[in-house]
Amino acid sequence: MTASRDDELPRMTGAAPPPAAGIVVAAFDFDGTLTHGGSVWPFLVAVRGRRQVVTAAVALSGQLARAAVFGGHHVDEAKEALFRRTLGGLPADEVAAMADTFGLAHYRRRGRSDVRERLEWHRVQGHRLVIVSASPDCYVNAVGRELGVDAVLATRLAVGPDGRLTGNYQGRNCRGAEKIARVRRWMKEQTSTNGSAAAVADVLWAYGNSDGDRLLLGGADIGVDVGRLGRFGALRRFRRLSDLGAAVTSSGGSGDTSGGERRERRWRHR
User: How far is C-alpha 107 from the chain's CA centre?
Assistant: First the structure.
């Protein structure tokens, strides 16, 4: 809220301080949003080879099937089990080097031009750019550097005291509720770093393509579905990337960080 106490006004002029501008953040999912298709399986194959990955998948077939059917925590547990079987025990520095190479090659081969154009639109507006992903940050970080984003918020892999990957997560798998929690926490840190509370509310745009992004888009002021299924997809209640004409982009565009949430809520419940 805007400060209104007399002792918080400038002493010399008696004028009210100018309102602090809120920040506008555009958060992009990675797999299927910035890229075509997923990246975890190709990454594991790049690091361990196809035979090792297939062997691990067969051993975990029951757990992977439950994850596909029931979703939720089953997905988190199955992916962590897969990482333990494929990455556990490998030197973290060697995997990091391979991940850098993989991340750049994967994005350059599989990047979506339409979503990249949208990311660049936000950059021109002066908005802050974030990639938020359930994929391991060891290779998403490389894509973040390539795109020049302000932050990468992704799943972190734990490293043991011996410098080797344990195969477990460090913290939580960055999917579902964890995505929006990390983005909002990062936004709060940016406000704290600037040294003042915003008088105009911060605005969050979020882009995703699958059910795993539902809470991210639902928790944003402006959620955008970039999935291929359109009105048949899991995110069909959100506006589509193709809906973002000049009239729509003004909510959260340059110089307008107020009212975005109110406009977006009308879209969501239409």
Answer: 15
